[in-house]
Amino acid sequence: MDAAGRLRKPRGRYHHGDLRQALVSTALRVIAQDGVEALGLRDLARRLGVSHAAPAHHFPDRPALLVALAGEGFVRLGAALGAVQALGARERLAAAGRAFLGFALDQPGYFRAMFGPHIARLPRAPEKVARAAEAGYGVIVGAVEGLVGAGDARVAHLSFAAWSLLHGAASLFLDGLVPLQIPELSSRATLELWVDRALASLCEGLVPRRRAPRRRAMHRRSLPELA
Amino acid sequence: MDAAGRLRKPRGRYHHGDLRQALVSTALRVIAQDGVEALGLRDLARRLGVSHAAPAHHFPDRPALLVALAGEGFVRLGAALGAVQALGARERLAAAGRAFLGFALDQPGYFRAMFGPHIARLPRAPEKVARAAEAGYGVIVGAVEGLVGAGDARVAHLSFAAWSLLHGAASLFLDGLVPLQIPELSSRATLELWVDRALASLCEGLVPRRRAPRRRAMHRRSLPELA
DNA sequence: ATCACAATCTTGTCGATGTCAAGATTAATC
DNA sequence: GATTAATCTTGACATCGACAAGATTGTGAT
Questions:
Q1: What is the DSSP string of A174-214?
Q2: Minimum mean pLDDT range among A152-161, A207-216, B122-131
Q3: To the nearest whole angstrom, how far is the Cα of A8 from the nearest Cα of chain B?
């Protein structure tokens, strides 16, 4: 097998040599460019110069390929988030946020495969994905615990808020829903800065640095319309 | 035409009578249950007791149906958000957040059609969708302006943070990615409460109520890994 | 009333897809 | 070097979105 990252199969050869890896990387490129919906097995085979049924020998069906992508994606995200663990309690959450957002923007293929709307309906994925996602989420929770102390009731709140914020920002940006509305946010650097500030604001609001009179109140406002 | 909300075509009749509306409402049900990917024109026709080519007379192709759903969804979301405008500046943002989240949870079909990853790639949609989404986003911006004053540099930051938070929370919940990780969040009421608190925390952090020494600093921490 | 026209629905077809089955070719192992 | 396993190919089938052409029904002018 050749060391070079060849994708298309040479015309003479019968075997591709590294079809599985080629399928994965090409699928990631397709998803990054045109979304999960645009991913087709026959199309992949065509791009790689291989017969339409060849992919089936590496991934039994389309869902299996997506599950494999999501699984590898979670491993990579876990690695990126794990590197944050070494940091001090004060900077860990901010670093985790930057790592998450950076992963989403750098690897949109993985991100979409991991967090797309299809993921919950993927056969065989839920348990595996849930466990892997839990690991990533655990890093966020750990960082928050380092901030407010483990066992604090605010841990769950702040973790979830941070997770939602990061997921929302990444999704909006990747799906092209942000630049249309907020011209300032067309650049990636601005997005990262703003998310960084928003995360800091969240902490500031939920766990004020100055010893303010510990008011976890402010929520006794009325809930108008929703039950 | 019968007033009752009939869906399937009576066996004797040649015309359905209200096929367009039946297509829309059935499509919403399908999307709410199984996602946008599961939406098929032939499947819809089958459910409604109509030939496989009948839908084409109301929606030329699949993207057109999705665009129509997204369009109507934006109208409804706009109405829900518009009702917030009457409120006082202090409560407007929280109310807008609850309205947005309530819409997403009550109308998951519309929400997915509006904010799914496909939306940016939908032909003819971008301009229309962008304008409609801008209107909804404008309500958020307006509410924030009522809080910190128009022209304030923090308006854009806080608006974007709130939007990301709401979008992320709604997406995670609808895609089944939350309950697996955070058992407390299996109930909708808890989700709404937590989002409400998170939104309040965001405000608290970015625009402190007490006259704290205006420190928009805290961002001079180093940016370790990302460029 | 009736006639023409437009709207609506049906049947038939085409190319493309995912999946399965069976055979061909190459690599690996004893 | 022969046998076995892995890999790839060809062929087929059901299903899908889309197009074309014909059938049926509602509408409006005369």
A1: HTT-STTT-GGGGSHHHHHHHHHHHHHHHHHHHS-SS----
A2: A207-216
A3: 27
